[in-house]
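Query structure, 231 tokens:
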């Protein structure tokens, strides 16, 4: 997405358009609430920009922002939704929902998710990268049933690579009765990646929203986020 949009912007505004996005998503993950910024001489009209983009990518709005705004580092939180079907899958939803053959215990999954809230080192659920931290503040993690689908909604100040998909994989083990409710939170004691945690398929995951502070706090938030966090 990032490269395609950057190329389209460059052609339209006739100037280099280096794009910064709020959250990099794994291949196959969707985004309905992605935010990006670029330093441009003019603000392009979304309709004209969309005409230069493939049909599965659309710009919903474009607006000037303060110079201090940074789509990635100014963000306060990011919210993802992962959808699972443990019944009869609607074929029209197959590109956005994970299908599971066994009925899941949603209440057990919800209780296990709640135990993970707070600031922790989530290295057991992440792929470690040199020079970065796996400490994250998980502010909400809700699991509920929406008719035939189970909806896992998770929000944090940031996420490591594959972190959401690993968290959902751990909850699936609880929902299927293969692990008890305390197992996911017990993994926070680990100091390396937990190989027994399955990373679920990417197509069930969608980045749905990104939150930012008031304009006056943008620069301070960006500086704070850039500093390496320690637990």
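Result returned for the query:
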């Amino acid at each position: 997405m990032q490269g395609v949009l950057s190329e389209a912007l460059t052609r339209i505004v006739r100037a280099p358009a280096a794009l910064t996005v709020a959250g990099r998503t794994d291949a196959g993950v969707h985004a309905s609430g992605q935010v990006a910024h670029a330093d441009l001489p003019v603000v392009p009209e979304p309709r004209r920009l969309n005409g230069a983009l493939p049909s599965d990518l659309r710009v919903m709005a474009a607006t000037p922002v303060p110079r201090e705004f940074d789509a990635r580092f100014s963000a306060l939180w990011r919210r993802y939704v992962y959808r699972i079907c443990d019944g009869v899958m609607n074929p029209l939803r197959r590109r956005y929902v994970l299908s599971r053959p066994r009925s899941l215990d949603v209440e057990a999954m919800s209780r296990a998710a709640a135990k993970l809230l707070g600031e922790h080192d989530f290295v057991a659920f992440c792929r470690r990268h040199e020079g970065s931290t796996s400490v994250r503040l998980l502010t909400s993690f809700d699991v509920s049933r929406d008719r035939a689908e189970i909806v896992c909604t998770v929000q944090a100040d940031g996420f490591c690579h594959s972190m959401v998909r690993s968290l959902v994989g751990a909850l699936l083990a609880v929902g299927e009765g293969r692990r008890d409710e305390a197992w996911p939170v017990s993994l926070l004691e680990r100091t390396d990646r937990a190989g027994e945690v399955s990373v679920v398929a990417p197509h069930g995951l969608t980045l749905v929203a990104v939150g930012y502070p008031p304009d006056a706090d943008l620069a301070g938030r960006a500086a704070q986020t850039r500093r390496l966090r320690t637990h």
